[in-house]
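Researcher: Please generate the 3D structure of the following complex. Treat every line as part of one assembly.
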Amino acid sequence: MVTAQSKETEQYNVIGTRPIRHDGVDKVTGAAQYGADLNLPGMLAGRVLRSPHAHARIVSIDTSKAEALEGVQAVITNADFPRAGDEEIDTGEGTANLKWVLDNVIASDKVLYKGHAVAAVAAADHHIAEDALELIEVEYELLTPVLDVRDAMVDGSPLLHDGLHTAAMDGSQSDNPSNTASHLQFTKGDLDSGFAEADVVLEREFETSMAHQGYIEPHNGTAFYRADGTLDIWTSTQGAFVVRDSVAPLLQLSPSQVKVTPMEIGGGFGGKIPVYLEPVAALLSQKTGRPVKLTMNREEVLLATGPTSGTYMRVRMGAKRDGTITAADVHLAFEAGAYPGSPVGAGAMCALAPYDIPNQRIDGYDVVVNKPKTAAYRAPGAPQSEFATESVLNELAEELGLDPLEMRLQNACVEGAQRADGFTYGVIGNVECLEAAQESPHWQSELQGPNRGRGIAQGFWFNIGFESSAYAQVNGDGTVPLVLGSTDIGGTRASIAMQLAETLGISAEEVHPHVVDTNSVGYTQVTGGSRTTFAGGWAAYECAMDIRRQMEERAAQIWECDAADVTYGDDAIIRGPQDEDGNDQQFTFKELAGQLVTSGGHIVGRADVNKTSSGPAFATHIVDVEVDPDTGKVDILRYTAVQDAGTAIHPAYVEGQMQGGVAQGVGMALNEEYYYDESGDLKNASLLDYRMPTALDLPMIETNIVEVPNPGHPYGVRGVGEVPIIPPAPAVRAAIANAIGVHMNELPMSPRAILDATLPSGD
Amino acid sequence: MQAVKYARAESVEEAVSLLQDGGDGARPLAGGTDVIVQARERTRDIDLFVDIKHIPEVISIEYSDDSGLTIGAATPCYQIYGDDTISEKYPVLVDSCSLIGGTAIQGRASLGGNLCNSSPAADGIPSLIVLEGQVEIAGPNGRRTVAVEDFCTGPGQNVLADGEFVVKLHFPAPAERSGARFLRFIPRNEMDIAVANAASAVRLDGDGNVSWARVSVGAIAPTPLLVADAADAIVGQPLSEESIAAAAAASSAAANPITDMRGSIRQRVHLAGVLTERTIRQAAERAG
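Model: Done. Output below.
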């Protein structure tokens, strides 16, 4: 664990330190306002009626009895929304067809998964609203559910969408309708000759289950449609602007009519980017003229929000006896859920990303099935695809008798290497992570005891940049309120404020960050893609530079000199030319701040950035496990996560991201799964039976931050949030194999699955 | 959740009459850790809760060497595992009570509630069975007693008739050189429901032979089972690898589980044996 400032950040005063987060007191005292905390005068309670079936045609909906119930103010169905056209809207980490967005919010002609919203009620309280749901009569014509990604791809499979054809990368579409929404392919080199060069070729098939982000705070949405035609929305979201730009077209409003206030958020991990309740609350408010609040319970969250894809994957990989990987062929079939849009594209680009393999083919298929529409989940697509490829790489090393870490070093991408999708790396920390892992006390230690094993895996994630906005004013006392549009999930108020403080030469505590509504800050993309500290920090840097320039100008005005002769130093001293008497002229930041009002007024710095120079992130994880051969239970004994953060702005929050990613990755590895029966009923829609790791299931996760600064950022930042969820599953798989000699080819590697793989048949 | 009425009973008689008057929609309320959730999720139609935990005999622990142990049905788990006499003489109850829910739940949840919820996977019931527990039931026709192993009749179902509720649980005083152990298997390390669970109790004679035994396995059949064949496999001889293996095989043979989100038939049949083996060994260690 990094406890002191690391070498790379010694040059900084604020960056690399661990100040107390600005929002900490409100959060630990309960003063922070989350979405469900909101209560407005005259507010109604909304509830959503959900489909009991995984696949059915809606024949009729009769809401008359519900409407007649005393206390019910409005009942709506899809038919109450304006008709959604066939247009694409920005949904935060991509675009989506507006009709599909609406149909997922509330079903039109068909229900496509159990829990799919069918109708919604606004009533005086939630008891009445629940009673009203029981009075809504829906007639369904049951259809055969499509639950397996491979079954769904077969010709003749029941179709979820009659008009869906397979789109190829060249824009062409299949003649026949299909559940396969798209097929993409990345190639490099010559696959046949690559495999011909190999001394050993391994092929493995994998299946992984849908897995949910498991944020503690359920979804919520409160809306108030005012008499003047403006709509206020309060919600826990990763992107207030995305909510605005999704809800406005669904209600055929102009974005200028919609103001979204992001509430504090109890976790998102990608799952709180799509809208679910907000459009429903908005329409119910429009119908009733009163504020309407909707909240989900845990069952609704698991049934009807977006988990990550279940998959079927096949990887063939060949290597020479010396460990050089010569060829890899990757087939990825990802469940999109009910509507197209799985993260298979990102999964495909990440699949072989850490390795310089001359001959590659990666095929990806986006396939609709009768399960909830998937949403982003921490490095969307990569935990699956890299589980498959890292697992085969580990088995190749085993087969060749090579050290799996050495074999990774031997094949590692370095600056200038090109991926199959065409991207060429700049400065990356791939090798540095592997070397740090190799030198770690964990890797150097010897693991002893029966049924124990060690595994390793590498991970890659892109990270993104894009739009962020910030403005900051200088108070007379030298403090600086900083206004941001990014929901703070992982400590980004602190990490962005620290970059402003560093640039101004003041302390982190003198900056007061605030997250505000969509009318009060410039356009800011979602908190996602590990972009917020990167792009938000860049906006803060430019905002601070704007303040520095204005402070120089103001000092010049006071000193009656040319602004070019004034310099704002990194020590926050503003120095001017000598005065007439030959004395040095200078202001501290605080001194000049105190004179702003009397010397011409306040100063406000502002910046809007739109950056594409995000820095790729790599991670190396090492895990020791013990397997109980009688029960199939896996205990994590020791875990070390090594990761290149570029520059760790607030190392404690970087470590927190690394540990959180590991916890979720271990969850996907060991027990988390969407467990369906053959009718498409999700049988474990509770946190009792959807088994995320508890504090007792994980050891202290050792962290080792590597810093290879990103030259594409003023402070060298790379994103840190996503990559740590990727290596756990393949590392745990390798450790299990090392412990008991069994290679698991499905996720989760639950006790049930391990017993199935190890019990003699007939037992 | 629907609107519900709440009534606090001060005596067993008052509780019986409230339950009788309340009909199908009336439920006794002890800790409420199952029944309030069922009401909120509308999986049970409840319009009246009859709170029984203010009746002194329903929330009590009494022990004497002559009459053994009596635990009021609503006595919360934390009082049970915090009781010195129980810790010393009935450690298998500590095993169970410290595994039911988390710390907060254990402040309210009771063995009576665990029994009346009648889950096949209940973590309390196998221990009550191997301790030869007797269930004292009060109802419109007075009181009656039922052996714990005969109490549950199916998942969520039991022998209680309309107007009846469980008042207390009785256990004989522990014999010399006896010991019992409860274990459950869950995929994680806490906060979970058993894939399978088991309790074993053994009594050793002066020669080190097993003179008496009881084995109960849960989550492997519609109700927690008393597996007589497993006990028979170890009684009358010293414990050996062979006899323990035979007991484990008997439990696996008695298992009649389902496959669901918590475990498969194959896994549960296997675990019935594994847990039988482990609980017998550890019960014998406690027997000393």
